[in-house]
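Trying the structure run again after the queue cleared.
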Amino acid sequence: MMASGRIRERLARWRVRLGFLVAVVALGVAQPSWASWRIGLAVALLGEGVRVWAAGHLEKGREVTRSGPYRWSRHPLYIGSTLIGLGIVIASRHAGLAILAAVYFAATIAAAVRTEDAELRRVFGSEYDAYLDAGPQPASRRFSAARAVRNREYRAVIGLAAGFALLALRAGGLL
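Done. Tokens:
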């Protein structure tokens, strides 16, 4: 494997840990107003909504999921995560954080997408290629909250709530 492939895999594997580091930096530099906090929260909640919707359809490792947001996007969880990050940047009101977040998302999400696509192609082969070629398809599976819980999406919900609670304390001058 080439060095760039190893770097890509490491970025993909470490994206959550690096995200926590970016979140700590965000809290340290944040200068939220109540208006920026509310707007940022709205954007982040939209992102979490996308993530919950996707997690409620995803059967990770068992199939090429085609229902819910997977009808239109190969990686809706990453779209949701990016919206959450944008919400945090908006709430934080710090230009340097916006640049750091943009670099973080460009590097880690791109690495995760390439790594995940290669793994899906390895595991599902022509079925994954057919999914890529088919475009949006009607799907009969319904959203399942139990599936979202099984996919541990509650961890992202808890993290989002904790992060915005800390930003609220910062906006109120208590932190």
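The mean pLDDT is 92. Worth checking whether this holds up in the mutant runs.
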